[in-house]
Write a structure and sequence with these properties.
Structural class: alpha+beta
Oligomer: single chain
Largest sheet: 7 strands, antiparallel
Number of helices: 12
Strand content: 5-15%
Number of strands: 7
């Protein structure tokens, strides 16, 4: 497909680079750290941002830094420095934080100082003193932070919007939020065409952030349809890229998000089937492809995947047949044992002596 995806179009050419372009183009952001039980160990230079805030870069970003009143979208984990107790994790919640620089909550002051020093796509480790965190009293609701607790943040700046008035998502109308998300999606398209995959993915992450679960829950009728027409392709694009990056479990999860909203979505079934096939979940993949074919019976890409699965099954059967050949069939004829000529010679010699001895006795008799 040369054109960018329309939400309900069938898979058509689901192989290779065209697959992603057909989906409205998406990419994959940096993977969240695998071990989140404690802050990561970082060897980079410590940068002093404030008397109570230091930063170490985990992963370099790109482009400009946000200015005052920029609306920033971030993922972060937070631990109390003394006890290493993790009290917040937006990666786990799958819901980025929206923070307007200069209008942040008091307990986010240190975090905002760190974010304002970061570039899009950058991931960093921040050490924030209690004075710029939850203060002398701490917080005993959610999140639970003890008094005078210094905080360690692992933060990733997904991206930001430069707005003069610092208008947050909550202050936007429904149309404004959907329009902002769609602009992010289109920006992602252009970045993908330039093969700037990390940057493009950040745009898609921000598009999804504008259309979070709390917002979608309030929508009905045409507005919900308009929002899903932007949100679902973003998830499908992420799945396509995750498959290319061999992160199949994550691709399956992205397809699942779409299928919750649209159980007849052919693209989601198809991509989940491809991911499952790569993981060796052949029966589940076959089921996904059959469901997809039910709604797109003429699609050649689906037929191709079903044919590949059939060929795979046949190859496995033939291999097993060869491996166990003879195990349950007739036993082969036993091989004749090799003759020992020395034993045969001694047997002949003994037989000769026996005949000679027997003949001598007969003469004596």
């Amino acid at each position: 497909m040369a054109e960018l995806e329309q939400q309900q179009s069938p898979p058509s050419d689901h192989d290779g680079d065209d697959d992603i372009v057909a989906e409205g183009v998406s990419v994959v952001h940096g993977e969240p750290p695998q071990d989140d039980s404690a802050p990561p160990k970082v060897d980079s230079v410590v940068e002093v941002l404030h008397e109570k805030v230091t930063k170490q870069i985990v992963k370099e970003g790109h482009g400009q830094k946000p200015s005052k009143y920029s609306t920033c979208f971030v993922h972060y984990r937070a631990w109390t420095e003394s006890t290493q107790h993790k009290f917040e994790d937006t990666w786990q919640e799958q819901q980025p934080l929206e923070l307007v620089i200069g209008k942040e909550k008091t307990e986010m002051t240190g975090l905002a100082i760190g974010i304002s020093s970061m570039k899009s796509g950058e991931r960093a480790l921040l050490h924030v003193g209690w004075e710029l965190g939850y203060g002398k009293e701490g917080n005993f609701s959610f999140p639970n932070v003890p008094p005078r607790a210094d905080i360690v943040y692992e933060v990733e700046l997904i991206g930001f919007d430069e707005t003069k008035e610092g208008k947050a998502r909550g202050d936007m109308t429904v149309e404004e939020r959907i329009s902002a998300a769609d602009r992010r999606k289109m920006d992602g398209n252009e970045l993908f065409k330039e093969e700037k995959l990390e940057e493009a993915m950040q745009q898609y992450e921000m598009a999804i952030a504008y259309l979070g679960d709390d917002f979608m829950f309030q929508l009905f009728g045409k507005f919900r349809d308009m929002a899903l027409a932007v949100k679902n392709p973003c998830h499908l694009n992420i799945a396509a890229c995750l498959i290319k990056l061999k992160r199949y479990d994550e691709a399956i999860a992205q397809c699942g998000i779409v299928l919750v909203e649209d159980e007849k979505n052919v693209k989601a079934m198809f991509r989940r089937g491809k991911a499952r096939a790569e993981l060796g979940q052949i029966d589940a993949a076959h089921e996904d492809f059959l469901k997809a074919r039910k709604y797109a019976p003429e699609d050649k890409a689906i037929a191709k995947e079903l044919r590949l699965l059939a060929e795979h099954d046949k190859a496995v059967y033939e291999k097993q047949k060869e491996l166990y050949k003879g195990l349950f069939g007739q036993s082969p004829d036993p091989k004749p044992k090799p003759k020992n000529w020395l034993i045969l010679f001694w047997q002949w010699l003994l037989s000769l002596f026996h005949r000679l001895f027997k003949g001598q006795r007969q003469k004596e008799d």
